[in-house]
Amino acid sequence: MKGILSILLLIVSGALLAQDNDTAAIRKAHVKEMRLKQFVHAFDEKKDTCLLDVKKYNEAGKLIYSKRDLICLGWNSSEEFEYTYTDGKMTKMMIYRDGQLFAKNEYIYTQESNDPQSTIGYLMETKDAIFTNFKYFKSKSGRLDSTYSYEKQGDGSEVVRRNIIRYDKKDNIVQVSNALEGDKVLDMVSYERGKNGEILGMAYTTYGENPQFVQTYYEYNQDDQIAKTTDTRNRTQLYFYTAKGLLNNVLTYNGKGGLEVEFIYEYEFYR
User: What is the pTM of this model?
Assistant: First the structure.
């Protein structure tokens, strides 16, 4: 329970999956709905697709609904999110599991900031409420350098978290760390940048009892879109796009070069 609010905030902040569209491309193409299907080529006896993700957007390009069917990943479950905005700021998020309301978050802002000053998270099953206050530290130019969150749990205990962001000389993010109060780092993402600021490599490290490390390398096409990724788990992904700059399909290969999974994208547009 102690980490649920931080996880939810990470989802909202745009920590995107490798197969997610660029948000600018979503807005430019006036996407109303995106459906992501998964086709597992590794299963010779079963050649059909599974609807993995559904995402719906308002006309401003903001995500208002998403659903992930975990059956596609081997679990008999589903998760849904509904997002509410006021004056362009997200003020509420409803979370459903298997069709039942699981939790909801409310976001409170000051008039001067687009970042939430505090949140209230309600857990329906346990009737617990988690109150979180945020402190943001920015440079003179307005660049976010660190965030501290103070989570007050239902039992009265408090968890303090900090996120530290480091930049290169061109103000490109090169490292983001997430830690508990003190120096206990939970995880860290580091980026290797090219001369134009593009991401050449990304390393994700988790610490603790079961530390993990994954490094991913990026290649781009002539339109500066991600064309290929290769990681240290011997997984390669190839990316293909529509004429509108949206993802069309993504092919995932194992270390032996065999095609394992294909992700297929379908869209509806406002106009």
Answer: 0.85
